[in-house]
Specification:
about 120 residues; mainly beta; 6-stranded antiparallel beta barrel; 1 helix; about 50% strand
Length: about 120
């Protein structure tokens, strides 16, 4: 489970965390759309990001047409783009993530699911 401060006695059995895509890695004039910046809920410092390095991220969205799910064999409009937390970005708890296909611009501001696997313990 994610790191819990000493004054919190709450035990969480949650298997995912929430994050928000804040944009792409960029400079003043150039942006790199292959690296997305994600703000993870409850992470406020560079030290807190260490737990999430290597964890999987899922951007779930709804497509226009139904397609057959490869696992359940049912038609669905839901699609997913999988990614991975690569490293910290700055000192405020934002992380850099790369996805199998680059996230579309409509994903900026959208919620992503941060999976609590693979474990590095």
């Amino acid at each position: 489970s994610p790191p819990v401060s000493s004054d919190e006695a709450v035990v969480s059995t949650q298997s995912t965390g929430k994050g928000v895509v804040t944009g792409y890695r960029r400079g003043l004039r150039n942006q790199d759309s292959s690296i997305s910046l994600v703000k993870i809920e409850g992470v406020t410092s560079k030290a807190d990001t260490d737990f999430y390095l290597g964890k999987r991220i899922a951007y779930v969205y709804r497509g226009l047409k139904s397609r057959k799910n490869k696992i359940t064999k049912r038609d669905t409009k839901l699609r997913v783009i999988w990614g991975k937390v690569r490293r910290a970005h700055g000192s405020s708890g934002v992380v850099r993530a790369s996805f199998r296909t680059n996230l579309p611009p409509k994903a900026i501001g959208a919620t992503v699911r941060v999976m609590l696997y693979p474990s590095r313990v």
